[in-house]
Amino acid sequence: MMSMDQTAPTRFALPPMRYGSVPAVDARSWIVISLASVFGCNSGDFVAAYLHFGHWHGLIPLALVFILLLAGERSTGRGGEAWYWASVIVLRTAATNLADLGTHNFNWAYPWVIAGLETVLVLAVVAVPPRLRPVGSDRASRPATDGWYWLSLLTAGTLGTAIGDCVAEEFGLGTGIGTLLLGGIMAVILGVGSRSGWATKASYWLAIVAVRAGGTTAGDFIASRSGLGLGLVLSTACTGAIFVVTLLLWRAKPSGGAAPATAP
């Protein structure tokens, strides 16, 4: 691992969020990310279907909301983790529509979509020089939410959505069995990553993809008639409520200082 000052110059200049706005990479954050993934799957479909944006036009307002969230976090200095988690939900919502745009609107084959997104993620995460991915000083590692981080998060979310849909549709496992399978894989990856302390970028982003894939089949299972059959509106409301209530009831431990955020 390599320790660097978060203020080091980058090619993808975007001011990171404040230290207090970014959650530590621990059990709490992974559970909340998992809930955000399920909620984001439903919210993505809700934006496309019930707000009548489709998979393409909804990306524009989502991008504007994301920009406003980043600007609001930097300008107000208040709100804590709410800024981060709201930004995650917006990106997860966009990722759902991006994946569906490729596989449903453009009818690109799942293997090609998955392979292409894997390539982009590798380039964004692995091929980026270390100075763009600062790590190191805080024992409770926190993502350095620069431009590369958000690009990687969007790509990982889109990739996870495509994988989840591929498992359920292309492999014919359905959303129920697909959720069990991907949930098991997710648990193994999270267990291994936690033991290693998320020592590498690869372990962190592999876990993000696994969480997104499992969240996709879980969200579809809750909404679809072949699953719990709640319907898209009710499932979006329920998964969103569970996500928000979890954040309100399970508060993060005090950071104990204003150290720079770090990333695996």
Provide the low-confidence segments as ranges: 1-11, 130-139, 257-263
Distance between the termini: 8 Å
Question: What number is the mean pLDDT?
Answer: 86
In percent, how helical is the residue content? 55-70%
SSE string? HHHHHHHHH
Q: How would you describe the shape?
A: globular
Q: Kindly estimate the percentage of residues that lie in beta strands according to DSSP.
A: under 5%
Class computed from helices, strands and strand pairing: mainly alpha
What is the count of structural domains? Answer: 1
Per DSSP E runs of 2 or more residues, the count of β-strands stands at: 0
Give the biggest sheet: none
Number of helices, counting only DSSP H or I runs of 4 residues or more: 9
CA radius of gyration: 18 Å
Topology:
Blueprint: H1 27-49, H2 54-57, H3 59-76, H4 81-105, H5 110-125, H6 147-170, H7 174-196, H8 201-223, H9 232-249
Helix pairs in contact: 1-4, 1-8, 1-9, 3-4, 4-6, 5-6, 6-7, 6-8, 7-8
Describe the structure.
- With 264 residues, the protein is an all-alpha fold.
- The chain has one domain.
- Helix content is 66%, strand content 0%.
- It has helices spanning 27-49, 54-57, 59-76, 81-105, 110-125, 147-170, 174-196, 201-223, 232-249.
- Helix 4 (81-105) packs across helix 6 and helix 5 packs antiparallel against helix 6.
- The protein is globular and about 45 Å long.
- The termini are close together.
